[in-house]
């Protein structure tokens, strides 16, 4: 007697029971995968974004902390200004290895260049920059010339166009950064020389001129010396320089992290409830099916089948449904999340970066293991009971 063949026959012979178990497992697997993808996707985005920034500390004007986080996290255009002399002051702080300024600008509403209405523009200093310049050196082998820019994955050229036109000025998009899932994907990077060209020509070529206040910057990105505690440097910056707030890299997106922890807690509770309800329902379905098939099992016992064989047959039947339901749940959830990832990110207010293939396969295996565990827990009692029943008594019922 072949266990696998008998299990398949039983699945085909009881469509209602099989469909019920299949849908329960599909629901648990789909919810588990969706929850994990959303949380892990947000975490991946933050890690990739912080890696792209490359700074230990970000120094911004006092009161601009939330605006700064929103700009980096969601690509929301902002304008921040503080005296350029703050760069010199930060550079002189003990423990600072590198300090580089950035200026934040924004395109006019509805710029025909990107997947957002208003584009966040970051001006950097190629002489001191350690965020964009390493990428340029690695992928382009050189820095940006006047009129050249690079952008995030959401920055693109319109079909048939050779240049990006901002403030009436033609910009040459020479490269696109790898996706991070955060606001950097909708950000355009340029040198101060290019930004000054935009500002120079914008009064004649654009509806509104681009204004860059003289001797002003928006932020200072800081790298500390090896072995130096970033927090100690941060405290010293705040103590010695007025009108600025240092944000340590691990503390970036603090409000968002708290939001994600709350969302994760809700997901865990919902997943737990779904798991319990599904396990109970599967157990009831198998108990009813086992009761209806007690004569069939008794015949198998009478023909020489052992209690362990009966138990294996019922468990194999459940396992096949678990694998099928789990795989379907993973596929359905993953495809849905991937297609609607931008909508979900906007609705939940979270960045999202789909995991790598290796991570996804690990999640796939974990979801199948959860499906098998759910079904195994649900069927172990009814399977054990029917496998241990007395054949003679079952035949008389």
Summarize the structure in words.
- Strand 6 (164-166) and strand 7 form a beta hairpin.
- 57% of the residues lie in helices and 14% in strands.
- It has 397 residues and is of the alpha+beta class.
- It starts with a helix and ends with a helix.
- The protein folds into 2 domains: 3-46 and 256-396, no CATH class; 63-242, no CATH class.
- Helix 2 (15-53) runs antiparallel to helix 8 (254-292), helix 2 packs across helix 10 (307-339) and helix 8 (254-292) packs parallel to helix 12.
- The model is unreliable at 392-396 (pLDDT under 50).
Quickly give the structural class. Answer: alpha+beta
Helix content: 55-70%
List low-pLDDT spans: 392-396
**Tally of discrete structural domains:** 2
Number of helical segments with 4 or more residues: 13
Mean of residue pLDDT values: 80
Series of secondary-structure elements, N-terminal to C-terminal: HHEHEHEEHEEEEHEEHEHHHHHH
- State the shape: elongated
Largest sheet: 9 strands, mixed
Rg for CA atoms: 30 Å
**Number of separate strands:** 11
State which percent range the strand residues make up. Answer: 5-15%
Task: Report strand order across the widest sheet.
Answer: 6-7-5-8-4-3-10-1-11
Q: How widely separated are the two ends?
A: 25 Å
């Amino acid at each position: 007697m072949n266990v696998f063949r008998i299990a398949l026959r039983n699945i085909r012979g009881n469509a209602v029971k099989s469909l019920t178990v299949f849908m329960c497992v599909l629901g648990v697997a789909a919810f588990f995968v969706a929850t994990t993808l959303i949380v892990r996707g947000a975490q991946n985005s933050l890690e990739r974004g912080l890696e792209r920034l490359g700074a230990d500390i970000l120094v911004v004007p006092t009161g601009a902390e939330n605006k700064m986080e929103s700009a980096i996290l969601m690509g929301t255009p902002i304008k921040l200004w503080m005296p350029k002399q703050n760069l010199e002051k930060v550079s002189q702080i003990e423990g600072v290895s590198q300090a580089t300024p950035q200026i934040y600008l924004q395109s006019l509403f509805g710029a025909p260049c990107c997947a957002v209405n208003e584009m966040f523009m970051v001006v950097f200093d190629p002489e001191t920059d350690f965020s964009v310049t390493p990428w340029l050196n690695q992928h382009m082998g050189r820095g940006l010339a006047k009129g050249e820019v690079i952008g995030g994955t959401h920055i693109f050229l319109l079909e048939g166009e050779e240049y990006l036109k901002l403030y009436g000025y033609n910009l040459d998009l020479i490269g696109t950064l790898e996706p991070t899932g955060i606001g950097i994907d909708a950000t355009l990077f340029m040198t101060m020389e290019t930004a000054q060209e935009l500002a120079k020509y914008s009064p004649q070529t654009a509806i509104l001129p681009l204004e860059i206040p003289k001797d002003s910057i928006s932020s200072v990105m800081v790298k500390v010396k090896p072995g130096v505690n970033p927090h100690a440097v941060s405290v010293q910056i705040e103590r010695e320089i007025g009108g600025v707030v240092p944000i340590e890299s691990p503390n970036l997106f603090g409000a968002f992290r708290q939001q994600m922890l709350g969302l994760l807690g809700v997901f865990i509770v919902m997943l737990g409830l779904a798991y319990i309800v599904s396990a109970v329902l599967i157990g009831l379905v198998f108990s009813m099916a086992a009761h209806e098939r007690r004569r069939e099992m008794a015949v198998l016992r009478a023909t020489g089948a052992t209690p362990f064989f009966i138990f294996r047959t019922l468990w194999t039947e459940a396992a096949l449904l678990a694998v099928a339901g789990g795989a379907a749940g993973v596929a359905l959830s993953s495809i849905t999340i991937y297609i609607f990832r931008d909508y979900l990110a906007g609705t939940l207010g979270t960045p999202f970066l789909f995991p790598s293939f290796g991570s996804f396969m690990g999640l796939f295996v974990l979801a199948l293991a959860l499906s098998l565990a759910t079904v195994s827990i649900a069927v172990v009692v009814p399977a054990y009971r029917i496998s241990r029943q007395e054949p003679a008594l079952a035949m008389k019922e």
